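Most newcomers find our protein records easier to grasp once they have seen one. To make this concrete, we reproduce a full record directly below:

===
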Amino acid sequence: MGVIRWSGVFWVAFFLCGLSGCGTDSSGEALSPEQLDAPDGSGDVTLPDGEAAGETSDGAVSDDMGPENSDSSEFISIIESLGLTQYAGAITPVEFSSEGNVTTYGFDSEEGPICMRGDDFLTGVRDTGSKNLVIFLQGGGACWSVFCLAVTGVTEGVPGVDILNPELEANPTRDWNAVYVPYCDGSFFVGDAEHDDDINGKGTRIHRGLANLTGSYEVASMRFPAPEKVLLAGSSGGAYGLLMAGALLRTYYPDTELIIMADSGIGIAREGDEEYIRKPLEEFNALRFIPEDCEGCLVTGHLTSLVGWFLKHDPQVRIGLFSSWYDSILADLFLQIPPEEFADSLQSQTDLIHAEYPERFRRFIKDGTQHTALIADATGVIGTDIGKLEYPEDALGGLLNGGLIIGSLSDTEIEGVTMSQWLSDLLDNNLNGWVDLLEERGPPPESSAEEGDETQ
């Protein structure tokens, strides 16, 4: 499926399912588009010393972050001390349904897992017999006292979104084992609280994101105890969830090669507005998960420092990011800030991470307003039950008259490099192909935030 433009009610459904033009050399310095094309047409980039980017003198891919060079026990102890593992080992998955190689598991809500309005939480698994595993966190907004737009129900099985599609040639994980983690509690997969505030006239908010995530990880570790490689990916709200979900996953797979792909979400919020990000974390009972040694966490108004904290403590992990400079969902609806302000924060915050970890954090940032590149089909994520989509009537503002671009693995590209190719190189740790791509910014679009939209 190609790039799709949605508007009106279809845009609403999409958002609820979910929520750079140069490379670098091995030192992290930007490469021009011309430098990305090798003289021999191979696509290999040659550095001044004659070595290909990401290769040692004997041609091997540099891998100073491999399991053999790191002991994860200290990091796991830190994660446990934060309380992220509070549900680990305390949740018992129960087979709910099975069809072919796809099995859906349910959970006892008394053990924790449950959706925001009381629906049962489910997680889907596909067993292909692969040595590798992809875990995908669905997106779906967020819900707290000042803003509530969320998915509140789940569907059985594994949806056919691009990153989970076993028939899609452009999907580099098409033959991998898969675990699908639905997002139905509005707390970025970290919530552990209840609020009887009747937001949207729906009664009590039950935030059990941490229990839901842990339940899915219990299923993953039960079905796939020793994968060689794990890709943890998330789109929109699921990408924001990756900030803590990656750390928790390390406790289940301490020695496995771990790759994280953040699809339209890396912790960007409002520059200098600590309260904006602090408020939902307080309501989700998740402030306790912010590490004391995470320099810059919250005070900048963003959560991006958690990415650097993760990379510092887990030298095995590498992280890829997709975004557009003016993402209309994040900038206009969720954050309600001018698109240029979003782009400036995206640039400055991710520049800091890439400068410190140039071989383990790289970006694919397109011009325009596209939101996500891994799913392509919104209905494949949220299912067909529109009644489980919850949003305030006045939250859409001027976006209803505009459009939303949903990207796919095959049609999202920069300078001829598709997201499919880039992701494949990320998975293979091919630093020649997995380069830092930042497309040049065009003029920012108009936004309701700039026009004083009533949702602010």
